[in-house]
Amino acid sequence: MRDRQREETRRRLYLAALDVFRRDGVQGCRIDDIAQKAEVSRAAFYFHFPTKEHVLLDFLAESEVPTAKLITELPASTTLEQLLTAAVESMAAVWQKEAALLVDAMTVSIRHTAVLDDREAGGPVRHLMAQRFKDLAARGELSSILAPDVLSDLFLSEIFVGLMAWGHAPHTPLETMLKATLQLFLQGAKPTAKAPVAAVVAKK
Amino acid sequence: MRDRQREETRRRLYLAALDVFRRDGVQGCRIDDIAQKAEVSRAAFYFHFPTKEHVLLDFLAESEVPTAKLITELPASTTLEQLLTAAVESMAAVWQKEAALLVDAMTVSIRHTAVLDDREAGGPVRHLMAQRFKDLAARGELSSILAPDVLSDLFLSEIFVGLMAWGHAPHTPLETMLKATLQLFLQGAKPTAKAPVAAVVAKK
DNA sequence: ATTATCTATAGATCTATAGATAATGC
DNA sequence: ATTATCTATAGATCTATAGATAATGC
Fold first, then answer.
1. Which 8-state DSSP code applies to residue A98?
2. Are B164 and B104 in contact (CB under 8 A)?
3. The domain containing residue B4 runs over which residues?
4. Does A69 share its domain with A128?
5. B145 at the A interface (CB within 8 A)?
6. B78 vs A169, residue with greater confidence
7. Measuring CA to CA, which residue among A91, A99, A109 is closest to residue A166?
């Protein structure tokens, strides 16, 4: 009973905050507006969330669920192209609906992933993807020019850059944009061209 | 005389702010600390800068000067590889010294480039690079999978991701990290593989 | 005398916390 | 009776602005 009430209040604050974020941005909005919309006191917000940004972290966690599920269910034999195509489609489905939150979500994500130390930070998608990349590298299906987890971060970042670029230029269909971004990464991350790569790495 | 005084105060606030940012981060620090360090009132800070973030925008502008100069001086015949190599080396020189400001600088940059509308936003490097990419695309030296300015944004973002990844894993030399990132992009952005690309774009 | 730079300060907003209320567990 | 949830509120910090000071231009 108490738990249910607590969760209901928290949920109301969560949804109210996202609404206000979509309109005014995380930095631009007042916590009072969120609290009023959720019909609780401002202090109740602080009881449930340490800062405004933590609401977005919750949102990021929630937004990752379908993509994480999808990646988990892919068979071990999945190729790089299949993996990335599936991930991109799933992420696009989420963010196409939430373009207004994209920039705030991404900057909060960068900040928290950077502040918390190293590779522990980030959500399940980052970890699942890094693991897949490691497996693919071991099977020789991935360029060894960079460590698999770095490549994986690079890929996820590119997708977000593609999403943001789409947010600016919505005349391009999102799917076109993301598939092209994916294609660019795939061609770059192919395990071919070993000679020039080795030369560059060896230089230092 | 008055102008000189003004610039001196502004400069003191600027340097004090960066110092405080390096220690506490943009979000974590108090404007009072900056003002005290610069030996002026807190309101003097607001006279010179609308927000703490605007100090970082100034810093970003300053940090771009050498790279922008370099790009401007490259001959029209410069290849994609030469352009990117030069840009990466110049950016690496700046950020290697300012790793502590990297994450804050990047998030501020994203936020402001995203908030101000479209392609007008951003510093000279973004525009010079976009122009060069356009020229290279016209000469057929660049994949036409995405618009040249989008490709250019993608490249710059990748460099920053590489820089941040290096900030987390400083056992890898920065130069190795960035050259590898560059190589990955170069291979992806080569104007080869036209068949699969066309198919993907045509799909939607 | 006018104007630019900066300070002092009022009001807005945030953050921390003491205490009220109502559910829980004994 | 104890504890979790939430409110009221005090203190910290931010932001806006009225006014002081000193340089500038006439």
1. T
2. no
3. 1-50
4. yes
5. yes
6. B78
7. A99
Domain count, chain A: 2
Asked whether residue A112 falls in the same domain as residue A133, the answer is yes
pTM (2 d.p.): 0.89
Pick out residues whose CB falls under 7 Å from strand C: A 1-3, 5, 29-32, 42-43, 46, 50-52; B 2-3, 5-6, 8-10, 40-44, 47-48
* Mean pLDDT confidence for B151-156: 92
> Do A42 and A64 belong to one domain?
no
Pair A62, A33 in one domain? no
Residue at token pair 């959720």: A38
In strand C, the nucleotides that come within 7 Å of a protein beta carbon are: 4-9, 13-18, 23-24
- 8 Å CB contact of B157 and A162: no
Query: What would the pLDDT profile of A166-200 be if each residue is shown by its tens digit?
Result: 877 767 788 888 999 999 999 999 886 444 444 34
Q: Where are the beta strands (DSSP E) in B103-180?
A: none
Q: Are A7 and A78 contained in the same domain?
A: no
Residues A63 and A30 in one domain: no
CATH classification at residue B18? 1.10.10.60
Mean pLDDT along residues B58-71 = 97
Q: Which amino acid is at B51?
A: T
A165·B176 Cβ contact <8 A: no
Q: Report the alpha-carbon distance of residue B201 to residue B194 in Å, rounded.
A: 11
Which tokens go with B88? Answer: 């990466």
Measure CB to CB from residue A157 to each of B161, B172, B173 and give the nearest one: B161
Which range scores top for mean pLDDT: A71-75, A149-153, B94-98, B163-167?
A71-75
Residues B59 and B31 placed together within one structural domain of the fold = no
Instruction: Read off the pLDDT of each residue in A67-80 and give the average, rounded to a whole number.
Output: 97
Q: What is the pLDDT of residue B115?
A: 62
Indicate whether A40 and A59 sit together in one domain. no
Unique residue bearing structure tokens 């490249």 = B155
> Of B50, B65, B80, which residue sits at a domain end?
B50
**Cα–Cα dist A131/B133, whole Å:** 34
The CATH number of residue B69's host domain is 1.10.357.10
User: Distance between alpha carbon A197 and the CA centroid of its chain, in Å?
Assistant: 29
Which one, of B116, B107, B81, B115, lies nearest residue B160 by Cα? B107
Q: What is the mean pLDDT of residues A72-92?
A: 96
Closest Cα in chain B, distance from residue A166 (Å): 9
